[in-house]
Amino acid sequence: MRISKLKSSLLVGAMFVTMTSFANTSISWWNDIKNNRVSSVKAAIAKGRDVNALNQNGQPPIMQAIRDKSMDVFDLLVRDPNINLNIENINNETPLMYLAIIGDVRRAEGLIFRGADVNRLGWAPLHYAASMGHVDMINMLLANGAFPNAPAAEGSSPIYMAVTSKNPQAVKALLAAGADPRAVNQLGKNAIDLARELKQPGLVEIMLR
Question: Where are the ANK repeats (predicted)?
C-alpha cells in the first residue's frame, strides 16, 4: 500500500513539474515573440514548438507577431514549412487580414505568393484594407483577384467600408474595379447612404458619377 501511494505521489509530482515547465516555456515563447527575439523563437521552433498553436487570447504566433510589431519574427514564421498561412484567430481573422489593416503591401504580397487566400466567406482582406483607406493595399489585393463586391458577414461591401475611411482615393480604386456603391447590407444601407450619414458630399459625388 505504501509503495502504491509513493508511486502515485511521484507521478503527481512529475506531472506538476512537467506542467510547470510547459507553462514557463509557453510564457517565454510569447515573450520572445513580443520582443522580436528571432534567435530565441527560432531555437524554440527547432525544439518542436508548434508554430500554429493559439495563445490564451486566441491568437496564433504569426498574427501575434503582427500585433506586437515584431516583423522580424513574422518573417521567420512565414518561412517555416509547417506554418498555416490561412490560420484563423478567435475572431475568424487571418494573417493577410492583419497585414491589410496595417497596410504592409510587401509582406501581404509575399503571403499571397506563398499561398494565402485573398478571398474568403464573410469579412475578407479587402474589407480591412478598405476600412483603413490603404489605397496601395486595395490595388494590390484587387490585382491578385480580390472580389470588389464581396459581402461581409452582415452584407457590407468593400466600398461601404472604404467610405468609413473617408478616403476618396480608396473609393475611386474600388469603383474602378467594378465595386457597386448601391449594394445594400443587411440594414438596407449602401455606400452612398453611409457617405451621406457621415457628411461626406465629396464621396457621394464620386459614387454618383
Answer: 121-153, 154-186
The span from the CA of 138 to the CA of 133, in Å, is 8
Q: Which residues of 73-88 are buried (b: 16+ CB within 10 A; e: fewer)?
A: bbebbbebeebebebb
What pTM did the predictor assign?
A: 0.87
Provide the CATH number for the domain around residue 138: 1.25.40.20
pLDDT tens profile 26-82 = 889 999 999 999 999 999 999 999 999 999 999 999 999 999 999 999 999 999 999
Is 19 part of a structural domain of the chain? no
Residue type at 39 in one-letter notation: S
pLDDT at 141 over 80: yes
> Considering its fold, how many domains does the chain have in total?
1
Contact 108, 126 (CB under 8 A): no
CB of 41 closer than 8 Å to CB of 74: no
CA distances from 193 to 23, 43, 50, 110, 126 (A): 51, 53, 47, 36, 20
